Amino acid sequence: MRTLCTVSAAICLFICTVYSSSAAEPTASNPPQGFTALFNGKDLSGWKGLVGNPKTRAEMSASELATAQEKADAEMEAHWQVVDEVLVFDGKGQSLCSAKDYGDFELYVDWKIKANGDSGIYVRGTPQIQIWDPGNKDVGGADKGSGGLYNNQKNPREALVVADNPIGEWNTFYIKMVGDKVTVKLNGKLVVDNTVLENFWERDKPLYERGSIELQNHGNTLYFRNVFVKELN
Question: Span 80-86, mean pLDDT?
Fold first, then answer.
């Protein structure tokens, strides 16, 4: 009987260990299956400072772009830092850009803001999947919640539902980009459903086929973590 109890206890321990391991929260060292950590939790490797926008960058010569990038990277390092595996922005510099350009992809990113905070996620260098404080009555549209395609003019721009967690708590975006269409879930709730993202920089042209993923500066303290990407096709 004692042997049977010992074996049963061992089996239960094994099952609990496997379950807890599979249910572990994703981290930079343990991204979701099929995804790559875009932020390593340690430093700014894989990121660069912002230089202009896709249109102005395309108009620069190679030497002009290199000079501008060197300056932007120095500014990035002055205002973005890693604290306890979190990307922290002090509100005084420019947006943080992925060093690599992406076409179609899926993205997870956790974010947190302070009261009246304002930010966003640029995809293919284009604004934007909106982040802001729904309680900020001084900004028109903020009450509609985060996740909307704020700069759209012809296509839907507002989030379908308000899904933000209380200010000061972490939120999670799931973003899927295929062609020029974007789907966004905020904290597990669908807020953008396969909607066209318009080309903000050149309204008469379709969305760029590739571009950087950017964490938008908007002049306030911001926090990001658990940035995971999976390229499609």
Answer: 97
